[in-house]
Amino acid sequence: MITDAxxxxxxxxxxxxETLAQGEQEQIEEIRLRVGRPIEYGAGGTLTFIxxxxxxxxxxxxxxxxxxxxxxxLLTRLSQHSLYTLEEEMRRxxxxxxxxxxxxxxxxxxxxxxxxxxxxxxxSFNIRIAREQKGAANAxxxxxTPGGHIRNTLIISPPQCGxxxxxxxxxxxxxxxxxxxxxxxxxxxxxxSELAGCxxxxxxxxxxxxxxxxxxxxxxxxMMMMIRSMAPxxxxxxxxxxxEDALALEEAIHAGITVLTSAHGKDLKDIxxxxxxxxxxxxxxxxxxxxxxxxxxxxxxxxxYDGTFAECRERLRC
Length: 318
Hints:
The chain has helices at 3-6, 11-18, 22-27, 68-79, 87-92, 141-144, 163-176, 219-229, 243-254, 268-272, 275-282; strands at residues 28-34, 40-43, 46-50, 56-57, 94-96, 102-112, 115-128, 153-157, 186-190, 211-215, 234-237, 258-264, 288-293, 300-306. The chain is of the alpha/beta class. It has a seven-stranded antiparallel sheet with strand order 4-3-2-1-7-6-5. A seven-stranded mixed sheet has the order 10-9-11-12-8-13-14, with helices on both faces.
């Protein structure tokens, strides 16, 4: 699963990860590399260092350090030997690589007219492993399609609880058509290149045969473009929160398009503390709310609510 991600790693770092048991490699969610500091990875919600002699350790003094030379090697591999080709991605602070994995970058920022132009002297890399879990939406589809009709849905989730994986599989299943549901024309606005994991505009993940994608496009602008140009039945985007996002969502729903989207938060109360989202929820445009959790496992459905914020205790009848 992490093979594509490992191809960009400096050789020494890659060999360290090859010392881990295969089962542990498959559980890795992110690899964090900081110049002059321990090589670290996250799996199952736990952060662990790589040991100098191979394997894992929780002790800093035993950890292998990531060198400045390896930082240059990694950046060179990311840019395919041409930093110019990376300029736009570096302005956003991340690069999407083959396999749909995303590499976050941090370092010294260069400004141009008060705006970020790029990140120079990159010293931190966060490689987030993109996993395609077909069937992730199986339990969710009945909750958002009572009577075979899709409901406008907001997925509420803390980071790394599976919301992107869920949205991706919803796009795939709705686009393909399953169990008397669909098929539908699906539009995905993928601002962070996480849902489809496009490289050069080509999806690295299976998001269905009838899905159109706007990659690396601001959500609000992208939603309006999709409404005007692609006439979708269903519009999917991730991590809303800005005023312009709310306006575009309302425009889509008023145009008769069903919306599936997500927002960062622990629960409905947490979302209601954010002015933009609170106004959007109070407007009544969403008919379903799903709350995700990591307990007992990533992607657990912790709560299902209808458009009046009433919890659906008999979930399949909600």
